[in-house]
Amino acid sequence: MQMNRWAGQNWPISAACFDGEAVRIRLSGAETAIAAAQLKLGGDILPDNEAASFWADVREQRLGFFQGETTLWRLSLASATAQPNLPGTWFIDWGGALRWLKSDQPVETIFQAAHVRGGYACRFRSPLGGEFQPLSKGLWQLHRNIKLAFDPHGIFNVGRLYEGW
């Protein structure tokens, strides 16, 4: 994946995504570093207002990809992980570490595809509601300990992620 190769270079890349048609990157930092990266990487430069609007639309899921009734899945995988062979439409964000999938595949199929690649999935938006992939016993205990450290009285988002806490 090109985004992962670029991330391994000394480029001032602060965001990267692939929308199925084009890789889009955001460069941030010193003007000289940005100019050198743009010269080497090439591509079109968006005016500041268009670029800011695009990245805000990615962050807030306002792009056309995120619209519609098809179930939207969110998969968190290592950025160098091969793309799961799942039917549907993909939007790749966070330089490859966050992958959005629009697909009507069964929940078990999506969870298994993420699991065998060392990642996690959740049904993010669907007429069936959201659903988080079950965690292993060790990760469940880690999540619980973190929640207890930040929310010792158990008052925030009770039952949202895991039943009973």
- Helix proportion range: 25-40%
How many independent structural domains?
3
Corresponding CATH architecture of the largest domain:
2-Layer Sandwich
Q: Please list the strands of the largest sheet in the order they lie side by side.
A: 4-5-3-6-7
What is this entry, summarized?
This protein has 165 residues and is α+β, with helices and mostly antiparallel strands. Helix content is 32%, strand content 21%. The protein folds into three domains: 2-59, no CATH class; 68-132, Alpha-Beta Plaits, CATH 3.30.70; 135-165, no CATH class.
Textual characterization of the structure:
The protein has 165 residues and is of the alpha+beta class. It has three domains: 2-59, no CATH class; 68-132, Alpha-Beta Plaits, CATH 3.30.70; 135-165, no CATH class. The chain is built from five helices and seven strands. The protein has helices spanning 2-7, 31-41, 48-59, 107-116, 137-150, and strands at residues 13-18, 23-27, 72-76, 89-93, 98-102, 120-125, 131-132. A five-stranded antiparallel sheet has the order 4-5-3-6-7, covered by helices on one side. Strands 1-2 form a two-stranded antiparallel sheet. Strand 6 (120-125) and strand 7 (131-132) form a beta hairpin. It starts with a helix and ends in a 15-residue tail after the last helix. The model has no long low-confidence stretch (mean pLDDT 90).
Provide the descriptors you would attach to this structure in a database record.
Alpha-Beta Plaits, five-stranded antiparallel sheet, 7 strands, alpha+beta, two-stranded antiparallel sheet, 165 residues, 5 helices, 3 domains
